[in-house]
Amino acid sequence: MKIRTIIVDDEPLAIEVLEKYLLQFNQMELVGKCADAIQAFQLLQQKPVDLMFLDIKMPGIKGTDLLRSLKNPPKVIFTTAYSEYALEGFELNAVDYLLKPISFERFLRAVDKIYQLTENRTKPLITHEPLLGDHDTFIYLKVERKTVKVNVADILWIESQRDYVKVVVKEHEYTTRQKISMLEAMLPENRFIRIHRSFIVALAKIDSFYSYSIQIGGHELPIGRNYKHDVQKRLKTERLMFEP
Description:
This protein is an alpha/beta fold. Helices cover 27% and strands 34% of the residues.
């Protein structure tokens, strides 16, 4: 089931960023983009909307005032550059309050809350829960009809296969319909590195490497030309040296 969504913001760049993020989610359907509260009010009278990304400080009517005027408002995630409205936003039962500039990881956490509120019929494809210990961090992957918990510490590498990603752990593989960039945003940066447009590897699981490839888990993975410099620099930082 699609989650019908609108974006309300007077900044075209802000709308562009949110729209780009939303395109990562198959369950999200963007049904409208509004430059002010009046446009949003009119659109809400014409179309069913489940979720509204709502700026607060806009010309004319503020986003918080718009929300107060609605008898049956959709779920709301506030998107604003002003932290002082946070308390007011949560008093209006906002699902989340995002401060600009909004990173994809922070956006993803907000969307995950929406999934949790939309009953169990709509599950997030990937969620991330950092626990007390770094080694306890895990993700949930939607694999066919079930949700699988995968400990981040067990991941060897992740491979993009068009509209799917393959998550490889020792003696097992999980394939889920997802984009590799979305999963990359959820992984701890200090423990993983993108070596190719199609590959992310766990630094601690690297067995050996050349200037053009990495050996991991008995497999050889290529280092992309556009990633070579960053990979070399990162591995040197980890006190590793490439073979000549």
